[in-house]
Amino acid sequence: MAIIFILPRFSFEGYSITLNSISQLGGQWHPYAWVMNIFGFMLMGIGIVLLYTKIPLHIISKILVMIFGLAMIAVGFFQHEPVAGYGVADAFESMMHSVIANVMGIAITLFAVNLVFDKKAGKNYRLLAFAAAVISSLLSLMMVVFPDYYGLFQRIMFISILGWLLYVAHLKSAVPSQKAHR
């Protein structure tokens, strides 16, 4: 996750952690975009898929988290449009990036909501799932309402959600009594 704070120093001139999105680090024609696309998106997505393949979850939860992980991989293949002055955008690639990023956001939010209703989970576990769903939804809304802070809100959401995913994976893999729901 450090990549979202380190790479901006080497990205395009004028990149702002507060304003610019994480996806713009991997944007078309941007310096070192390959670093973000491979290490920030693709490998992170592969890690989530591999980790959650082994985690016992209800089938719907499993599908949603797999969609999230696979979409994160795909976001690395379809790059964000370049910032003005950094080349001509491939419109199809930009559109695919946006669609897949939205699928990713919807999948992780629905995953969290689904875990809220996991009757076999403890109260704290379900409260954290509720918090993840709220954080994902509110920060997405705040990116639209306060576009000058888009990058900041996105980083908070990215760190919060990935941290929560690691916590859920730890809880689900550490507690043998929580078997997969069939």
Write the layout of secondary structure elements.
Blueprint: H1 3-6, H2 33-53, H3 59-77, H4 91-116, H5 123-145, H6 150-174
Helix pairs in contact: 2-3, 3-4, 4-5, 5-6
Mean pLDDT comes to: 92
Low-confidence stretches: 177-182
The secondary structure category is mainly alpha
The H-and-E topology, N to C, reads as HHHHHH
N-C termini distance:
33 Å
What would you report as the Rg, rounded to the nearest angstrom? 17 Å
DSSP summary: helix tally: 6
Helix content: 55-70%
Report the sheet with the most strands, covering strand number, pairing sense and barrel closure.
none
The total count of strands amounts to: 0
Label the overall shape: globular
Task: Please explain how this structure is put together.
The chain has 182 residues and is mostly helical. Helix content is 65%, strand content 0%. It contains six helices and no strands. It has helices at 3-6, 33-53, 59-77, 91-116, 123-145, 150-174. Residues 177-182 have low confidence and may be disordered.
What descriptive keywords fit this protein?
6 helices, mainly alpha, disordered C terminus, 182 residues, single chain, 0% strand
Describe what is shown at a glance.
The chain has helices spanning 3-6, 33-53, 59-77, 91-116, 123-145, 150-174.
